[in-house]
Specification:
The chain is of the alpha/beta class. It has two domains: 184 residues, Rossmann fold (3-Layer(aba) Sandwich); 160 residues, N-(1-d-carboxylethyl)-l-norvaline Dehydrogenase, domain 2 (Orthogonal Bundle), CATH 1.10.1040.10. Strands 5-2-1-6-7-10-11-12 form an eight-stranded mixed beta sheet, with helices on both faces. A two-stranded antiparallel sheet has the order 3-4. A two-stranded antiparallel sheet has the order 8-9. α9 runs parallel beside α13, α10 packs across α13 and α12 packs across α13. The protein binds nicotinamide-adenine-dinucleotide. Nicotinamide-adenine-dinucleotide (NAD) binds next to α1.
């Protein structure tokens, strides 16, 4: 048995606690300043406010002021924040991280420094205090895993990616439960690029269902699956090109963290719901309003990728015009242009 501290009591940080307690670990779930109501709700009746589901009583909820207490005797630390909270999380954990502490995150995102795209495990490592940085090897979980399903113990397959295999092996062994299947990979660029990019591309895959609804269509076997599948294939192609431009293995796009997570995010995630609203013809603002405050990391990653793709093209790492789907998604959510999928430019161009 180990002691796990999870910082961030949102949907996924909290859902992750379920396999951990089922494995017999002691689990301390620490809310951010934004999670006060969630922590209070868990203390009151164990029902998670946004998951709308009761969590095991063995999970001990803490407010952020109690982080020091929650870190005492901690064997592994998980970051459960979304990408908007990663800087805050790094600053907050800094006084509590000791050399050798296994650290991993569920957070998905990429950052662009004007020359290179960086994956979050590297970003987090660079933000750790100098005295511990060399001895902490951040890892990240990727793969098709909807929080509400994991909280209900639905069988889920994920990849734990990082640069230090001994840390991955140790963490994976602690994380595995009979319904939570964990693989490890040191291809942190490929896995984490997929994890972040699918949040953007799932929005585009979902356009087709929204277009079908806008035409008055009913759900069924004749809908706009042709559209969805063509966009899905183009999304994988573009994810592979971006991974290659980052120096990774583009074949990763066809695996669990790429195709697997893209499918679940389109069908079961909030990004898919957002894309469907856009596909019906709603403006960006109207679609955001429909999402009622849900975290929309697709907006962040598309903004990062518009700038990054221009930089990568200028540096000769990507061919101009090779990401027509990404370009169109950026037009839709950053320039508020209507959905008008550029099929002719897909798959290398049909002319
Ligand atoms: N929901 C899922 O099914 C799912 C699945 C796999 C991975 N993820 C990833 O997990 C991460 C969290 O997603 P979620 O679904 O739990 O979202 P959520 O909105 O339920 O929770 C977000 C968490 O981040 C914190 N946070 C947000 N902005 C912050 C800020 N500015 N400063 C400090 N903390 C901040 C919140 O307090 C909360 O703890 C995301 O990166 C997401 O891509 C989610």
């Amino acid at each position: 048995m180990a002691v796990f501290t999870v910082l961030g009591a949102g949907m996924m940080g909290s859902a992750l606690c379920v396999p951990l307690v089922d494995r017999g670990h002691e689990v301390r779930l620490v809310g951010t300043p934004l999670d006060r109501d969630i922590v209070e709700g868990l203390r009151c009746d164990h029902v998670h406010l946004t998951l709308k589901h009761a969590l095991p009583e063995a999970i001990v909820p803490y407010h952020v002021e109690q982080l020091g207490e929650a870190m005492q005797g901690c064997d592994a630390l998980a970051l459960g924040v979304s990408s908007a909270g990663i800087d805050w999380a790094c600053e907050t954990i800094a006084p509590h991280v000791r050399p050798g502490l296994p650290l991993f995150m569920i957070t998905k995102g990429l950052t662009w420094d004007g020359e290179r795209l960086h994956v979050l495990p590297d970003v987090v490592k660079a933000k750790l205090p100098v005295g511990v940085r060399d001895d902490v090897h951040p890892a990240a979980v990727a793969g098709p895993c909807i929080a509400g399903e994991l909280a209900r113990r639905v069988p889920s397959c994920v990849i734990l990616a990082g640069r230090h295999q001994p840390t991955l092996t140790e963490l994976a062994e602690l994380l595995r439960a009979d319904y939570y299947h964990v693989w490890t990979s040191t291809d942190v660029v490929g896995v984490e690029a997929c994890a972040a990019l699918k949040n953007a591309y799932a929005m585009g895959v979902a356009f087709g269902t929204g277009m079908h609804v806008a035409r008055g269509g009913e759900p069924g076997s004749v809908a706009m699956h042709n559209v969805e599948s063509a966009v899905f294939a183009q999304a994988l192609l573009e994810m592979g090109l971006i991974i290659e431009a980052m120096g990774g293995d583009g074949r990763r796009a066809a695996g669990l963290a790429g195709a697997g997570d893209l499918d679940v995010t389109n069908n079961g995630g909030r990004t898919g719901r957002f894309g469907r609203w856009l596909g019906t013809g709603l403006s960006r603002e109207a679609a955001i309003e429909k999402m009622a405050g849900a975290t929309l990391e697709c907006l962040e990653i598309i903004a990062v990728m518009r700038e990054a793709s221009r930089g990568l093209i200028a540096a000769g790492k990507l061919a101009a015009g090779s990401l027509p789907l990404l370009d169109h998604m950026a037009e839709v959510v950053l320039d508020d242009r209507p959905v008008d999928i550029p099929f002719e430019a897909f798959f290398g161009g049909s002319r």
